[in-house]
Amino acid sequence: MAFFFCITTPGGIAIGIAISSVYNENSPKALLIEGIFDSMSAGIRVYMSLVDLIAQDSLSEDLAKQPVRQVWAYLALLCGAGAMSLIAIWA
User: Fold this and answer.
1) Alpha-carbon span 41 to 77, nearest angstrom
2) CB under 8 Å to 59, separation ≥6 — which residues?
């Protein structure tokens, strides 16, 4: 992963510099591509949070043995997701 990061980051910077003179950020094509990349990024973040972070908490024996704590944990999860949605709409 470190090698991949070392290759893609300078490559992305070079591409950005190369197209900066002809790039129109208000064109429909640019807005469509930006929307697609933003949605892909959001999908990756949701996957990482649900699968990697929350799965460990949900599968722990401490949480499974305490149903009240489990309900509070899921309510906190839903409130956090709602807060992030509000921030996304607001921004």
Assistant:
1) 20
2) none
pLDDT in tens, 25-69: 888 988 998 889 888 888 888 888 777 777 777 777 777 788 888
State which residues form the domain around 66: 60-91
As a whole-number percent, the residues of the chain with pLDDT over 70 amount to 99
Q: Report if residue 68 sits inside a domain.
A: yes
Number of domains into which the chain is organized: 2
Question: How far apart (Å, rounded) are the C-alpha atoms in residues 46 and 52?
Answer: 10
pTM: 0.49
Asked if 31 and 53 sit in the same domain, the reply is yes
Give which of 20, 24, 21 is closest to 12, Cα–Cα: 20
CB 73 within 8 A of CB 57: yes
Asked whether 33 and 39 are in contact (CB, 8 A), the reply is no
Q: Are residues 59 and 65 in contact, defined by beta-carbon separation less than 8 angstroms?
A: no
